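Two records follow; treat each independently.
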Amino acid sequence: MKVIALKKYGHGYSGFFETEDRYSFFHFSNGRHKALQQYLKSDFENYDHFVDVIRKFVRSTFFLKCPVTISVLNREELDRVYAEAQKP
């Protein structure tokens, strides 16, 4: 899975991850994640089209410059992705 958008809060993270067939908006807190909304990839022309649609509802800085592959959705991986995204 790839993390494509990430925002850190005091209690956790929210963001989007991409799997083979969908994009999922999630919230992560207290060691758990919950998929809040899911979007089928087949509903979009491509990744850029998905980002263009969602950017109408969130800040453009919500999306990472480059998606980051993770093996499991946990605090350690999200901390790593967030730290990488903060580098200039």
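The next record belongs to a different protein.
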Amino acid sequence: MVPVLSVLLAVVHVLAVIPGAAEDATAGNHQEKWVQVGGGLFLAVSLQAPGGPQVAALRVFSHGHWAVDGRLGRAGVRSSLGGLSASPDGRVHAVWVDYAGPGHVWYAERGPWGWSPGRQLSPGPRYAGFPSVAAGVAGVHVLWYAVRPSELTRHGAAYEVVHTWRSQGGWSAPQVVSWGLPDALNPSAAAVAESVHAAWYQWDQDRYRVQHARWHRGRWHPSEPISPPDEDASGVSLEGAEDGGLHAVWVARTRAGPVVLYRRRSANGRWGPIDRLGPGDHPVVAESQRSVFVAWSHGGRIRLRVGREGRWGPLVDLGTGEHPALSSTSPVYVAYTRRTPTGWEVVVSMVSASRDGRWGAGWWLPLAAGVAYLLWRVRRAAVRRAAIHGGEPA
């Protein structure tokens, strides 16, 4: 029996074009920038404003309209790198970097009566940035990387991944979770069931490798490397799977250039094989209806592939743009930043996946044999009927 091969094809439809964006409007592949709460779909972007770009939460509607739901950054203060997450109680949680001074991580939430005032989460006088937020049944968790002076690095500073979480007693004191050698950057976070997963890339004396750690019942388990030991890695992004697993994508820095890699963690904690999806940078991953969507930028254009059950569909070119952001909704939405003759804009598109079934090689042999056998049976039956009724066979 010849098996039927099935390929997932991505169909993309431009939904909205949002003008007045900042150059880094959708930057931050380590962040989740889309959330859906009830009938509301929200997207975090940076828009042009007096005094510099400002992080805003947009509400995007299925018919293509959009509106600014809330300006999160402070008026007259530059802000960027906005990320979102939604908790089971229907609240939306946002983080971003406020650049009044060296840069600090700020937080706000959207409840039934709108957005709360922003508050600073990162302590101290030194820089903190690249935050990621994950909200779930285990509470609201925020991670970022902070800078401290160090003689162990040539640039005189060490980057450390810091974590804080909010429970009924308020926000916990920030603690370092990137144990080991210094230089740990750009954490990505995802809430899965009663756990929170985090990943970042960290120096191991030879190269940067992706590290993964899991928070469960009030403590972090030791981190483990999940990228190959012979390749520099960066730009990791996480997304929880519907079955309790985890999706991870990152960039391998090879001699031939950056390559996007994908790996899946099962619900029982086992990491699967690594898939190489294609050349590019700034990858993001999402899941919808058991299909995996991965988008990234390469050569100033947006690339997309869809996978299911270990098989990946062909590469899809979405057009000119940078810094894609995907939603884990149905349908899936992708937003990215595109340059125009007068500035920058954000493009929002819907993505759907369809199956293209094809027979394997040599499909015509069994089909021809089946047709010949069927014709023989029909002819034989006709001859027998003619003999029974005394007619002349054709």
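Discussion point: Helices lie at 364-388. How would you locate this feature using only the token line?
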